[in-house]
Design goal:
Number of domains: 2
Radius of gyration: 18 Å
Strand order of the largest sheet: 1-4-3-2-5
Helix content: 25-40%
Largest sheet: 5 strands, mixed, barrel
Number of strands: 6
Order of helices and strands: HEHEEEEEHHH
Distance between the termini: 23 Å
Structural class: alpha+beta
Strand content: 15-25%
Shape: elongated
Number of helices: 5
Length: 188
C-alpha cells in the first residue's frame, strides 16, 4: 500500500489534523502488541488492555501519508496507560501518529476514513474518491469488489508515476483526465 506511517509531523499533516479536530494535538502511540490483541480490531484489543491493565480507551484518528501525494486519517483506538502514555496494542510493531478525538466515539457504526490530496491531479483525485467510496460500502457487495479493483488499478498507475494530464493507461491515446477519468466520474 502506498500510505505509510509518517516519519515526521509535517505542516500538511498539521493542517489536515486541524480539519479533523480543531484543537487536537497529535501524539505518538508507541507499539505494545498484547498477546490477546486481534489485527484489525482496535476496540476489542484496547478493551482487553483496559480490562486487564487499567487505563482508558482513546478514540481518534490514525494519521498516514502517501509522500507527495495524499494524507489519510483512519478512525481507530489506542490505549492510554495510568501514566498518560499512549500505546498501539494491535499486533505488529507500528508506531502511530494518533490524533485523539473527544467528539467521536466508536459505538459499532464505522466512521468513514478521510482523505486529503497534496496536489491537484485528476488521477489522484479519482483514487481518493474511489477510496472514500470503498470506506462507505458494506464488505462483500458486488459494487465494493468492482470499486476495489478500480482503486488497485488507480493506485498502481499512481505508483508508476502516472498523472491526470499524461496519456491514459488504457492506450486510447487520450489524456487520462479526458478518457477514463470522465467514465469513472460518470459511473460514480
Amino acid at each position: 500500500m502506498a500510505f505509510v506511517d509518517p516519519s515526521r509531523f509535517s505542516n500538511p499533516l498539521r493542517r489536515f489534523a486541524r480539519t479533523l479536530v480543531a484543537d487536537g494535538v497529535p501524539e505518538v502511540a508507541a507499539p505494545l502488541p498484547l498477546p490477546e490483541s486481534l489485527a484489525g480490531e482496535p476496540w476489542y484489543s484496547v478493551g482487553r488492555a483496559v480490562a486487564g491493565l487499567g487505563g482508558a480507551r482513546v478514540d481518534g484518528w490514525c494519521l498516514q501519508e502517501w509522500p507527495g501525494q495524499a494524507l489519510r486519517a483512519t478512525f481507530s483506538a489506542c490505549w492510554r496507560d495510568g501514566e498518560g502514555r499512549l500505546w498501539n496494542v494491535l499486533p505488529g510493531n507500528q508506531t502511530w501518529l494518533f490524533l485523539p478525538d473527544p467528539q467521536h466515539r466508536y459505538e459499532g457504526v464505522p466512521i468513514a476514513t478521510r482523505y486529503q490530496a497534496l496536489g491537484r491531479d485528476a488521477l489522484l483525485a479519482d483514487f481518493l474518491k474511489v477510496s472514500a467510496e470503498l470506506a462507505r460500502l458494506a464488505p462483500g457487495s458486488a459494487v465494493r469488489q468492482t470499486l476495489q479493483q478500480t482503486a488497485e488499478r488507480l493506485e498502481g498507475w499512481l505508483a508508476l508515476g502516472g498523472k491526470g494530464d499524461a496519456q491514459c493507461p488504457c492506450q486510447s491515446g487520450k489524456r487520462y483526465q479526458n478518457c477514463c477519468s470522465r467514465r469513472l466520474r460518470d459511473s460514480l
